[in-house]
Amino acid sequence: MLAVSDMGLSLSSLPTMLRIFLFNAMGISPNACFAQEFFIHGFTVMESSVLLIMSLDRFLAIHNPLRYSSILTSERVAKMGLILAIRSILLVLPFPFTLRRLKYCQKNLLSHSYCLHQDTMKLACSNNKVNVIYGFFVALCTMLDLALIFLSYVLILKTVLNIASVAERLKALNTCISHICAVLIFYVPIITLAAMHRFAKHKSPLAIILIADMFLLVPPLMNPIVYCVKTRQIREKVLEKLLNICGR
């Protein structure tokens, strides 16, 4: 599920980014822009939800290892994935429609190399209060995911501290490192970008573009590396493939 959301984020943003950087083609039609921001925000919410489910997975694995396989069956995981996908679609579905109803000025210059809801709505000449309120609501839902992830790690830490052996404590915490890295890689650029958009008075356009590109490009790049390094099964498969290629 994490890989699907990462691929979705990349495929949603890369077409316009590559057009700008390779061909200096900076134009985009309104409908294409609205569609792009729908997919970008949709996969962002999905990735946030996936990270939340992964924190639940880590908590169950540490708190109740004997019942872990019976609780998180493949069927339940598939159902959770479907619920996450529906939640993501429903949350961001109003975005294109609320943007389409706005009237836009002649100056239609975006701050990023792709379309974001908070960036597009600022171009409107008409009242965008509905967009501001609903955009804030979606942001709160994403932050709620982060708060629940933090809560799950509080519970994980509480469980780990009850383990008598220091070696077992470290072993248990070691299983969480990949997920903690994925959470930081995903949330740090998002929070930084949101803070700059809402609070920075004299913000650097270059800094905003750089952080916005990091927000979409770094997680899909780094997550496979993090999980290859920390997950033995994935690491062994990758090394096996590389050795086969080198052997040829």
From TrEMBL:
Segments passing through the bilayer: 7-26, 38-56, 77-97, 132-156, 177-200, 206-229
G-protein coupled receptors family 1 profile domain residues: 1-227
Major localization class: membrane
Organism superkingdom: Eukaryota
Secretion signal, residue range per the UniProt entry: none
Membrane topology: Multi-pass membrane protein
GO MF assignments: G protein-coupled receptor activity; olfactory receptor activity
A Gene Ontology BP annotation from the UniProt entry: cellular response to lipid
InterPro entries (alphabetical): GPCR_Rhodpsn, GPCR_Rhodpsn_7TM, Olfact_rcpt, OR51/52/56-like
Pfam families cross-referenced by the UniProt entry: 7tm_4
Compartment annotation: Membrane
Keyword flag RNA-binding: no
Alphabetically ordered keywords of this record: G-protein coupled receptor, Membrane, Olfaction, Receptor, Sensory transduction, Transducer, Transmembrane, Transmembrane helix
Cited Gene3D superfamilies: Rhodopsin 7-helix transmembrane proteins
GO CC list: plasma membrane
Protein name, per record: Olfactory receptor 51A7
Species for this entry: Tupaia chinensis (Chinese tree shrew)
